[in-house]
Amino acid sequence: MCLTVNMATSTVKLFSPRIVAQTGKKCTASVIMLHGSGGTGTDIRDTFRILLREELSFPHIRFIYPTAPLRPYTLAGQSWNVWFDRIDLGLDGHEQTESVGAMATQLGELIDAEVKSGVPLNRIVVGGFSMGGAMALHLGYQFYPQLAGVIGMSSFLYNKSGVYEALEKRGKDARTPPLRQYHGEEDDLVLYKWGKATHEKLTSLGVQGEFVSIPNLSHSLNLDLVRSVREWIAKILPEEHNL
């Protein structure tokens, strides 16, 4: 079976990742899934499991659900488990580049640990919900363009995001991970139009991807979305004999 990594003895000093052991003889791919602001890795894992009525799992893929560190979060006025700080919402907001970069370094250690375990970068998908999806966009398009793919659910980037700057510097012909973005049409926290604008900007800069609109969905996940995520992961990270 795919072995569970003992993060307590690892050099990665991240926020108690939850790692799901799989049923196959060998892990050949990994998915790192990031929760939304104020949540935990257990929360998003349980949401997938409750909606699917089973674990989101594949025999050859290791799923990792880290929890963000507790840090001062300006929007909440107190400390929350968040991937980076935000002082405002909306496309014209101001990106807190220092906190984004610091978290990219920590999550990069988690990615590097997967590579050291034998999983190459082009067999690792990063994804997330809300702020977790935004962090996944940073990882895939600003810091680790060699990744296999990126999933964003109810997520957006500021108009002046460092992600866009990085893509512009590399040029449209540079290799970028394929993108799958989901957004509820009734989202009243991270507005649908913010997610759509983010996708349009990313694709204008050379990212290949698809934006999936979910009717009647607010700032949350539902069964159709989660099933689609599972299908997309299976396509991006097939078993080795199907490569």
How do the strands and helices of this protein lay out in sequence?
Layout: E1 18-20, E2 29-34, H1 41-52, E3 61-65, E4 70-73, E5 78-81, H2 97-116, E6 124-129, H3 131-143, E7 149-153, H4 162-170, E8 179-184, H5 192-204, E9 209-214, H6 223-236
Parallel strand pairs: 2-3, 2-6, 6-7, 7-8, 8-9
Antiparallel strand pairs: 1-3, 4-5
Helix pairs in contact: 2-3, 3-4
What descriptors fit this protein?
6 helices, Rossmann fold, single chain, 33% helix, alpha/beta, globular, 243 residues, two-stranded antiparallel ribbon
In terms of structural class, how would the helical and strand content be classed?
Answer: alpha/beta
Q: Could you tell me the CATH topology label.
A: Rossmann fold
Q: Regarding CATH, which class?
A: Alpha Beta
Q: Flag low-confidence runs.
A: 3-13
> So what's the overall shape?
globular
Keywords: Hydrolase
Organism: Littorina saxatilis
GO cellular component, one term: cytoplasm
Family: Belongs to the AB hydrolase superfamily. AB hydrolase 2 family.
Write a structural description:
It is a single chain. This protein has 243 residues and is an alpha/beta fold. The chain has a single domain, classed as 3-Layer(aba) Sandwich (Rossmann fold), CATH 3.40.50.1820. The protein has 6 helices and 9 strands. The strands form 2 sheets. A 7-stranded mixed β-sheet has the order 1-3-2-6-7-8-9, with helices on both faces. Strands 4-5 form a two-stranded antiparallel sheet. Helix 3 packs parallel to helix 4. The longest helix is centred in the middle third of the chain and has 20 residues. The N terminus is likely disordered. It comes from Littorina saxatilis. InterPro entries: AB_hydrolase_fold, LYPA1-2/EST-like, PLipase/COase/thioEstase. Its EC number is 3.1.2.22. This is palmitoyl-protein hydrolase.
